[in-house]
Amino acid sequence: MSSKYIVRQPIKNRENRIVGYEIQYYGENNAFGGEDSAAANDFAAADTIYNFLTMNTDKLLRGALHFMTFTTTLLMKKSPRLFDKNELVIQIDDSVIIHPLAMHMIQQYTREGYKIAVNEFQFAPRYLAMLDSIDYIKLNFCTTPELTLKNIIEIAHSMNKKCIAVGIDSEELYQRAVKLKVDAMEGTVVAEKMTYKTHNSGYMQSNFFRLMVAVIQDEPDVEEIEQIISVDATLTYGLLRIANSRYFSLHSKVTNVRQAIMTIGLNELKQWVYLLSASNAENQMEDGAEEFLKLSLMRAKFCSSLMNYAKNIPITKPDAYLMGMFSTLNYLIDAPLEEILQQIPLCREVKDALLHHSGRSGMLYDLALCYERADWAQIDKLSEELGIQTNLLTSLYFSCMEDVNRIWTEITQASVKHREELAPEQVD
């Protein structure tokens, strides 16, 4: 069976905040410009849309801007109308622009309120003639000469168009894009980039508020407390450190959140929460930290799901969950990951996977990372070595993404509700 993958690649501005996602697709015809045949491109694009619709994408594409490539045929069939115009950017490439009806089609979608992006913009009459209808210009920094890039960016900015640098897969290209003052960037380096580091209090404020409410109940619900802590990498890390400290004189190591809660007890847990609250009363989580907390949860869910299908992995599903969860701690806590992991009793295989990408656990971790990066060749290779059928990956990935989106929505909505209940006089 041919492999088919759909991945969201983050697009970030110069402050490393996500401004949207590009939907990248890989299938039996290598979609979106991978083949010379227009029919092959149309098949791939249509297959992408079909996959999205059959996986509840109305939920998955909510609340963010998504850049998605459409071919001429799909534009003529009004396929973009399947998506919310406030959350879709219609991407087009040269195969659309050379079409005699291109100008008419793009102007029509513009009038309907859709945003338009052009892949690999060129200094050519057919591109320049469409500038009035274009909102985003995507520039390939790997193949375009620097002087050409500079000229395009200057012209675009003079016409209030935004420029997105793509293919930013090295620090050199990243710095070049920053120097040329692009509005946003996309690539493997961009996905992992974070200018600001937080410190030990880099937890999500709204989730921490939920935890405070949960622990002060007359009869605290341990399961609810466990769920709240388990979606937050820094809270999980902090709790495991306390539970494994000398203060509790443990004979065996505590390796999960439930064990940690039962070990320290609810009274000590309340004290810990109060101390965190007092020490951070004036602080807010720094820019970018929430993004990495969400990424850590996504990796935790994905690694745990992959365990249902991977063969001969020497760790448990909870271990795999923590492996994904703790993979971003070096961004959330201002210290090297090796130093951070010394403070908690993760099994050796998980530590080796996170630090050295070694063993079969490292292969599982790398598969999750490669899927994030849309590294198609490595996805195929690692899936085969782990004994995972490649046709399962996309559904697993989007199931985890939907679960993460649901959890984040619950966190933010519950936070607002609890604030209103506890302090109604402060609510307008």
Low-confidence stretches: 28-37, 195-201, 281-285, 424-428
Strand elements, count: 8
Percent helix, as a range, is 40-55%
Would you give the CATH topology of the largest domain? Hypothetical protein af1432
The name of the CATH architecture of the largest domain is Orthogonal Bundle
For the record, the CATH class of the largest domain is Mainly Alpha
Give the percentage of residues in beta strands.
5-15%
Main sheet summary:
8 strands, mixed, barrel
Could you tell me how far the N terminus lies from the C terminus, measured between alpha carbons in angstroms? Answer: 57 Å
Judged by helices, strands and strand pairing, the structural class is alpha/beta
Widest sheet, order of strands: 1-2-3-4-5-6-7-8
Form type: elongated
The H-and-E topology, N to C, reads as EEHHEHEHHEHEHEHEHHHHHHHHHHHHH
Average pLDDT works out at: 79
DSSP helix count?
Answer: 21
**What's the Cα radius of gyration?**
24 Å
| Total number of domains | 2
